[in-house]
Amino acid sequence: MQLSEIISSDKFFRSIEMFPPKQDETIPNIIDDINQLKPYDLAYISVTYGAGGSTQGRSLKLIEGLAKQFDIMAHFTCVNTTRSQIDAFMGKLRALGVHNILALRGDIPAGMTKDEVLSDFHYASELVKYLKETTKMDIAVAAYPEIHPESPTPEQCYDALILKANQGAELLITQLFFDNDIFKRFFETLHKKGLQIPVIPGIMPITNFNGIKKIIELSNTKLPETLNNKLTKHKDDSDAVFEIGMEYALKQSRDLKLFGVKGIHFYSLNKRKNVEPLLKEI
Ligand code: FAD
Questions:
Q1: Gap between the Cα atoms of 63 and 196, Å rounded
Q2: Whose CA is nearest to atom 39 of ligand 1?
Q3: CB contact set of 76 (below 8 Å; sequence gap of 6+)
Q4: Quick one: which of 137, 160, 173, 256 is 20 to 30 A from 103 by CA?
Q5: Catalytic: 25?
Q6: Phi and psi dihedrals of 61, rounded to 5?
Q7: How confident is the model at residue 118 (pLDDT cuts 50, 70, 90)?
Q8: What is the pTM of this model?
Q9: Using 50, 70 and 90 to split pLDDT, how confident is the model at 68?
Q10: Would you give the distance in Å from CA 253 to the centre of its chain?
């Protein structure tokens, strides 16, 4: 389904995120596992994209396999990318039946400055505008309840999000977070500033102690102290960590649904077992 149809319906929706694995050979097994989520009526599966096109081929392979069973949202970054490269990739996505894009700038590669790396586009808002002018894709964009690390002030971060909506984005999907109060303040601030499109929380169930420490560092989010203490106490018991993480994600998701979000985007880390308990309940 296109995002515009999902949004115009009154129904609460669920989606999941996947990433292209390092080895192509693992793609069929991942797809077999995820295909078993078909009964949960996912609005779409989003597939990440390595900034600058580093995973382009593998992202397309994963999309091609998943698109047989699910609607897809393809992530796309404009960092270090020209208009003609964008046009070519959009053509490939159209051929696979993809109608939804998560339009991103992407991270600036380490050791480079913005001026060295950015080519035809400087910010995601410019990509949104270009895609709206040149394609029929529906567009989602990324949002940061804990504020994007490059934003000098929260105000600037909010303004950049509103600009992406004004350029035609249909939906905001947030970075993962573990404190619902931060999300609720962010949501209310954006709506007070006039944002009219849905803000969809991104929820990641913690499934692995060392893994989550790395993810938290990369995504610039914080673990609430009580949750961190509980996980640390059980860090050598992988089943207990999985159970604590899943219980926390369920609690977070139930609370957000009650708060009134239009949908929830679950970070699956490519495994059915990481999201199926949530899809059963939410
Ligand atoms: P932008 O919206 O362009 O914002 C980048 C920074 O510039 C922000 O600080 C913003 O406030 C500022 N800014 C924006 N517009 C202006 C302006 N006009 N003037 C001054 N400052 C401005 N990365 C990947 O490489 N691949 C992925 O698949 C991927 N998927 C993601 C999915 C989600 C849900 C999220 C939340 C992030 C994802 N990312 C992905 C990470 C993302 O690429 C980085 O966070 C990147 O640093 C910013 O991308 P953006 O699209 O948010 O950029």
A1: 30
A2: 106
A3: 49, 86, 89, 101, 102, 103, 104, 127
A4: 256
A5: no
A6: -60, -45
A7: low
A8: 0.97
A9: very high
A10: 16
Q: Is the CB–ligand 1 distance for residue 199 below 6 Å?
A: no
Report pLDDT digits (tens) over 156-213.
999 999 999 999 999 999 999 999 999 999 999 999 999 999 999 999 999 999 999 8
Please compute Rg for the chain using Cα positions.
Answer: 18
Residue of 17, 126, 170, 276 marked active site: 17
The closest alpha carbon to 246, from 216, 214, 208, 207, belongs to 207
Q: What is the reported pLDDT for 108? A: 85
Residue of 17, 66, 15 lying closest to 279 (CA atoms):
15
Ligand 1 atom closest to Cα of residue 159: 11
Q: Where are the domains of the chain?
A: 3-208+248-281
